[in-house]
């Protein structure tokens, strides 16, 4: 059954996919996993940051767990030299990268990992370095020559004549949710906007180089990116920047929980880089953060200095059960909300109280994830009839994806579990087959 299912599902995917699948037919099919410098280092980067991250990814077992990209964020170019006046190429900052970006990439590739870089669909990057608008082709060719495998493409310094007719702004950073967040007519075609066009230009430039470069759009959800992101890149940011605080994680969860149907193979809602290891997240909050990012099939890009990471954070980042759910080869869709918790649907504008109950299938069975947004431990319950894929008439074994142990006994009809404040339960339900008799049944 397993093999048949794999064959038929992938045949279907190839059938509808065609135009948007990456050139090698595999890059970007599943959410990207790796490291990005921004959350921990901001502009304070050098080759050493990336070589250290790469070495740690290998030695800590993160490479074996599936992490592969080592991504440079903003501030890698030379602010004075800008672009080479004869070739038009961006000049890297050789004080930070003495052997050039290509030199760093060669060393990262040597370790069996991939190299990512950052640019911007405007005249400058957010930190004021050269942007790629009007230079898409030369920049794509340069990145390709350097051995780049991933491009994060930001949205700062957009010239006035490229602004959209209508706005659509989602800002979880300042948490400005006041309506109207858009002034466009309800049937407005966001895929024909100037914002979309700026991102198509780099998509088309990347298509011309003979290297497969995973294309991550970072327009913070503007111009309703989820409606054209899948035709453009392999992931798209939905919100403003993340921060290492619970009250900055929950707005992202809240908002993304209304966009889950846009994600599937080759196109992923990007909830921003992980803050595991940063700030003051508790152990429970760290589990909930990583677990929800994995369950909602966001890219999993570590954003902390790996040479300083603690055991608890590392164990969370290496949890093979959540990684396997995120990277499932057969089921491309993310979890879905199946019940709110604490009363009725409060909508995505509720910053700190997103829905608490999510479920989705993997090759292993049906998974249920339960978040506790309150400040005290809660008993959380649901009926099997509420969960797509669970049959209230059948018996199930329940497995805890954090402890890696089965819960004692079998369960049917309903299930309850205590969830700590700001924690996330991760459960796998597998049916107990009836009438399976041992060879010796009835012999004695
Ligand atoms: C996004 O595009 C890919 C590749 O064409 C396709 O497999 C996937 O189903 C699309 N996602 C959605 C949500 O339509
Ligand atoms: C290119 O020309 C500009 C303006 O003359 C100059 O500031 C810059 O340093 C030059 N860049 C290089 C790489 O020579
Ligand atoms: C990087 O590019 C420079 C300039 O084109 C070249 O001299 C150098 O050999 C390259 N380094 C590697 C590791 O390919
Ligand atoms: C904005 O102006 C530039 C330079 O004149 C032009 O190349 C570009 O096409 C304009 N953008 C739009 C969306 O019209
Ligand atoms: C973490 O920091 C935030 C913001 O400064 C604060 O509101 C919160 O109480 C802190 N949480 C913990 C667990 O220390
Ligand atoms: C979010 O939901 C909680 C619980 O219902 C409510 O107390 C709070 O006021 C809501 N916040 C917003 C911004 O709607």
Automatic annotation (TrEMBL):
Gene Ontology CC: extracellular region
EC numbers on record: 3.2.1.22
Alphabetical list of Pfam families matching this protein: Melibiase_2, Melibiase_C
GO MF, one example: alpha-galactosidase activity
Alphabetical list of InterPro entries matching this protein: Aldolase_TIM (IPR013785), GH (IPR017853), Glyco_hydro_27 (IPR002241), Glyco_hydro_27/36_CS (IPR000111), Glyco_hydro_b (IPR013780), Melibiase_C (IPR041233)
GO biological process: carbohydrate metabolic process
Reactions that this protein is recorded to catalyse: Hydrolysis of terminal, non-reducing alpha-D-galactose residues in alpha-D-galactosides, including galactose oligosaccharides, galactomannans and galactolipids
Signal peptide annotation: 1-19
Subcellular location, record wording: Secreted
Domain Alpha galactosidase C-terminal: 355-425
Keyword list, A-Z: Disulfide bond, Glycoprotein, Glycosidase, Hydrolase, Secreted, Signal
Major location (coarse): secreted
Function: Hydrolyzes a variety of simple alpha-D-galactoside as well as more complex molecules such as oligosaccharides and polysaccharides.
Family that this chain belongs to: Belongs to the glycosyl hydrolase 27 family.
Name of the protein: Alpha-galactosidase
Originating species: Morchella conica CCBAS932
């Amino acid at each position: 059954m397993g093999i048949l299912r794999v064959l038929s599902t992938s045949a279907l995917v190839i059938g509808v996919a065609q135009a948007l699948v990456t050139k090698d037919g595999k890059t970007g099919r599943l959410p990207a996993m790796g490291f990005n410098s921004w959350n921990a280092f901001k502009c304070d980067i050098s080759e050493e940051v990336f070589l250290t991250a790469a070495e740690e990814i290998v030695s800590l077992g993160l490479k074996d767990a599936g992490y592969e990209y080592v991504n440079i964020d903003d501030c890698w170019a030379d602010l004075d030299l800008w672009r080479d006046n004869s070739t038009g190429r961006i000049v890297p900052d050789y004080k930070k990268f003495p052997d050039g970006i290509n030199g760093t990439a060669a060393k990262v590739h040597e370790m069996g990992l991939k190299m990512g870089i950052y640019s911007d669909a405007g005249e400058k990057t957010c930190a004021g370095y050269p942007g790629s608008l009007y230079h898409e082709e030369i920049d794509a060719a340069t990145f390709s020559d350097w051995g780049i495998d991933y491009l994060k493409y930001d949205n700062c310094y957009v010239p006035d004549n490229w602004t959209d007719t209508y706005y659509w702004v989602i800002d979880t950073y300042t948490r400005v949710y006041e309506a109207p967040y858009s002034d466009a007519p309800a049937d407005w075609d966001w895929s024909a906007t100037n914002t979309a066009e700026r991102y198509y230009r780099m998509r088309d430039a990347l298509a011309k180089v003979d290297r497969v470069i995973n294309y991550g759009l970072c327009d913070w959800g503007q111009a309703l990116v989820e409606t054209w992101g899948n035709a453009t890149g392999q992931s798209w940011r939905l919100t403003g920047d993340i921060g290492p605080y619970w009250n900055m994680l929950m707005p992202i969860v809240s908002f993304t929980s209304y966009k889950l149907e846009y994600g599937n193979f080759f196109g992923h809602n990007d909830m921003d880089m992980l803050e595991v290891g940063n700030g003051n997240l508790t152990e429970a909050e760290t589990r909930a953060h990583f677990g929800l990012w994995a369950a909602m099939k966001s890219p999993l890009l570590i954003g902390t200095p790996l040479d300083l990471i603690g055991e608890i954070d590392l164990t969370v980042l290496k949890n093979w059960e959540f990684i396997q759910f995120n990277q499932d080869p057969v089921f491309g869709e993310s979890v879905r909300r199946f019940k709110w918790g604490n009363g009725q649907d409060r909508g995505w504008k509720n910053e700190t109280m997103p829905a608490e109950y999510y479920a989705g299938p993997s090759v292993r069975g049906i998974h249920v994830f339960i978040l506790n947004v309150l400040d005290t431990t809660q008993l959380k319950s649901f009926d099997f009839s509420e969960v797509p894929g669970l049959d209230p008439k059948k018996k199930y074994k329940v497995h805890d994806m954090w402890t890696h142990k089965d819960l004692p006994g079998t369960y049917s009809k309903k299930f309850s579990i205590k969830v700590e404040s700001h924690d996330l339960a991760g459960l796998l339900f597998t049916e107990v087959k009836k009438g399976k008799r041992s060879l010796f049944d009835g012999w004695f």
